[in-house]
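Q: What does the predicted 3D structure of Trafficking protein particle complex subunit look like?
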Amino acid sequence: MAAIYSLFIINKSGGLIFYKDYGSAGRMDTNDSLRLASLWHSMHAISQQLSPTMGCSGIELLEADTFDLHCFQSLTGTKFFVVCEPGTQHMDDLLKIIYELYTDYVLKNPFYEMEMPIRCELFDLNLSQAIQKDRVALLGR
């Protein structure tokens, strides 16, 4: 059983630039993942405007009965969100690690064009290692 079901990276204009499914149940097709990313981008933007407090950065955690959705938004507006088992701890730390991998292996890649889908083998490899390390750490707790 995986603690992490899926990872999405959305560019600042709401386009899905990366999707990875880690769970075996309920796999989404490409259209569903695009719709979900667009919906999350819109909800995140609306939540910033509806917040009664000034300086709200949007939804960071959405809790449901069967999953939690954790979100991290970078200063450039790129959003990283993980869908995981309810009550999974330390997802904020994992999202920051994923962001570091994104900056190290995607943004520093001279062949990557900004706002385009991510196709970087080093990013995929290091991301898999980070997710695996997180799963092992969860089993040890």
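A (community wiki): The structure tokens above were generated from the sequence. The beta strands are 4-10, 16-21, 61-63, 68-73, 79-84. The chain has a mean pLDDT of 87.
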